[in-house]
Amino acid sequence: MLGGLLRMAQTKRDKRVVRFFSIAAILGVLISGGLYFAFGVAGAVVGIFIVVVAFCLGVAWFLYFYRCPECGRRLRIQASQPGGRDPIRHRCEVCDIVWVSGIEAGSSSGF
Predict the structure, then answer these.
(1) 3-state secondary structure the chain
(2) CB-based contacts of 108: which residues, under 8 Å, 6+ apart?
(3) What CA–CA distance (Å, rounded) separates 21 from 66?
(4) For 16-46, how does the pLDDT look when each residue is reduced to its tens digit (9 = 90+)?
(5) How far is it, in rounded angstroms, from Cα 93 to Cα 49?
(6) Is the pTM of this model over 0.70?
(7) Could you give the CA distance from residue 20 to residue 18 in angstroms, rounded to a whole number?
């Protein structure tokens, strides 16, 4: 009887997040470099601005519009341990899976 109550959710790592930000970083370097060679420093500044805006939109998508890779349901961020540097997690109640990203959130001492 207690077997169903004590069952822990399965934890899976969502590699789409790391892949997304890696591809975005590579494209950002290529765009900024191309604009630098085409237009000089002003072009590089515009390229870096575009990359920063795209990065912010990507983070906003990840935090607020994340969907379960298996069922497609929109998920919320699971609360982390207070004061810790835990990876951001999203829990899907339907699939009973906790999706772990490669992005850490939490307080940082800076050193």
Answers:
(1) CCCCCCCCCEEEECHHHHHHHHHHHHHHHHHHHHHHHHHCHHHHHHHHHHHHHHHHHHHHHHHHCCECCCCCCECCEECCCCCCCEEEEEEECCCCEEEEEEEEECCCCCC
(2) 85
(3) 14
(4) 777 887 888 888 888 888 888 888 888 888 8
(5) 38
(6) no
(7) 5
